[in-house]
């Protein structure tokens, strides 16, 4: 039973007036929504601002479960604040979206109350037919609970470790566009629906060609800088693995790659574009992810291509073509900037027969054809 207050009577529980301001004393440290610091004494407002403002801010504080330590919304918020700075803006934005979704759907749970079954029900309810998305959410939840264990001391086990994910096995993408389909999309990019030439078409073709020739991801091609071209090679440091393996690859400038570079430079001169990027928009900035995919989608529609072909398929098409031509698998792995050959196999969409030319002699005497002995 709480003892009777001797001071600050008439104020809400845990609220006092001190140094000319209303303060809330939290039972445990919580994130101050106005300073973003972990505190127990949280200033609500100045005394002269009045009780109406104090009650408004106190109501906000009590309603926001993400501010209450030990709740799932709070874990999601803490994970965003502590762990996402090292990721690229695009990845950070996606992780923030996923964390907010988890906070909303598991709002009534404390971190300690979440069991493997809780997550199983969550996955089945929202991602029953979306295996890849389900796996991504499990990955985020695993990271969150790892932080809850090691840094926040909110539990001793990770419920994600007990999950049965056999119903959510992901299948590798099997789509491999033909050269004819890519050629149609490239050509359609040059002319708009109105039949007039598009301003972005020629540069879009350069981006497509470079993606096919170098097998790099869309972000690393559209963000390619002139400064990365040096000494007869282009240095790529894949954004996706920059924080993990940190692997880089120097791709030698072949005549085909050089031709793409010169076309891009000619376009920049034509439109008087001053930019450090090799494939900029007319504003001098690199094309955004949305912008590039929008150009691809519109060109695909104008080309009347109905196949499920996306920009990233160019990477797999280039690797598969190289395998068809008998290129060394180690070289294919190097160009894809993979640390594992097994990962590279995912990008080769056909079973390529390996040719053996060893001259093996019999260790015994063959029979005489004339005598049969």
How does this model look, in words?
The protein has 373 residues and is mainly α. It has 3 domains: 15-62, no CATH class; 72-168, Orthogonal Bundle (DNA polymerase, domain 1); 179-346, Intergrase catalytic core (hpI Integrase, Chain A), CATH 1.10.443. Helix content is 43%, strand content 9%. It contains 13 helices and 6 strands. The chain has a 3-stranded antiparallel beta sheet with strand order 1-2-3. It has a 3-stranded antiparallel beta sheet with strand order 4-5-6. A hairpin with a 2-residue loop joins strand 4 (229-230) and strand 5. It starts with 14 loop residues before the first strand and ends in a 26-residue tail after the last helix. 25% of the residues are buried.
SSE layout:
Blueprint: E1 15-18, E2 21-31, E3 38-46, H1 51-63, H2 72-83, H3 89-105, H4 116-127, H5 131-150, H6 179-188, H7 201-214, H8 218-222, E4 229-230, E5 233-236, E6 249-252, H9 255-270, H10 289-302, H11 313-324, H12 329-336, H13 341-347
Helix pairs in contact: 2-3, 4-5, 6-10, 7-9, 7-11
Keywords: DNA integration, DNA recombination, DNA-binding
Family: Belongs to the 'phage' integrase family.
GO molecular function: DNA binding
Classified in CATH, the superfamily of the largest domain is: Intergrase catalytic core
Order of helices and strands: EEEHHHHHHHHEEEHHHHH
Low-confidence stretches: none
Report the count of strand segments.
Answer: 6
- Give me the number of helical elements: 13
Shape: extended
Q: Give the N-terminus to C-terminus distance in angstroms.
A: 107 Å
The second-level CATH architecture of the largest domain is Orthogonal Bundle
Number of domains: 3
């Amino acid at each position: 039973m709480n003892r009777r207050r001797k001071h600050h009577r008439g104020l809400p529980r845990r609220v006092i007036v001190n140094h000319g301001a209303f303060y809330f004393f939290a039972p445990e440290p919580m994130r101050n929504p106005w300073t973003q610091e972990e505190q127990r004494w949280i200033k609500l407002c100045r005394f002269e601002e009045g009780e109406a403002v104090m009650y408004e801010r106190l109501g906000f504080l009590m309603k926001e479960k993400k501010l209450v330590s030990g709740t799932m919304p709070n874990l999601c918020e803490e994970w965003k604040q502590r762990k996402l700075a090292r990721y690229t803006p695009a990845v950070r934005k996606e992780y923030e979206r996923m964390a907010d979704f988890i906070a909303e759907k598991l709002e009534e749970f404390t971190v300690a109350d979440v069991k493997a079954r809780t997550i199983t029900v969550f996955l089945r309810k929202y991602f029953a037919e979306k295996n890849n998305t389900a796996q991504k959410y499990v990955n985020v939840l695993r990271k969150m609970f790892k932080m809850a264990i090691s840094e926040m001391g909110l539990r001793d086990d990770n419920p994600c470790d007990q999950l049965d994910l056999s119903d959510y096995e992901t299948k590798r993408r099997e789509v491999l566009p033909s050269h004819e389909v890519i050629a149609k999309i490239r050509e359609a990019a040059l002319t708009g629906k109105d039949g007039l030439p598009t301003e972005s078409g020629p540069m879009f073709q350069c981006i497509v060609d470079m993606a096919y020739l170098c097998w790099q991801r869309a972000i690393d091609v559209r963000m390619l800088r002139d400064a990365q071209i040096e000494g007869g090679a282009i240095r790529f440091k894949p954004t996706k693995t920059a924080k993990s393996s940190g692997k880089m690859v120097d791709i030698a400038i072949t005549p085909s790659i050089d031709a793409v570079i010169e076309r891009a430079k000619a376009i920049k001169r034509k439109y008087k574009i001053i930019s450090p990027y090799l494939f900029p928009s007319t504003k001098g900035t690199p094309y955004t992810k949305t912008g590039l995919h929008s150009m691809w989608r519109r060109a695909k529609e104008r080309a009347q291509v109905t196949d499920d072909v996306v920009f990233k398929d160019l990477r797999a098409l280039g690797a598969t073509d190289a395998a068809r031509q008998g290129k060394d698998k180690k070289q294919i792995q190097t160009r894809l900037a993979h640390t594992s050959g097994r990962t590279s196999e995912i990008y080769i969409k056909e079973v390529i027969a390996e040719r053996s030319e060893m001259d093996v002699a019999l260790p015994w005497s063959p029979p005489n054809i004339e005598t049969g002995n």
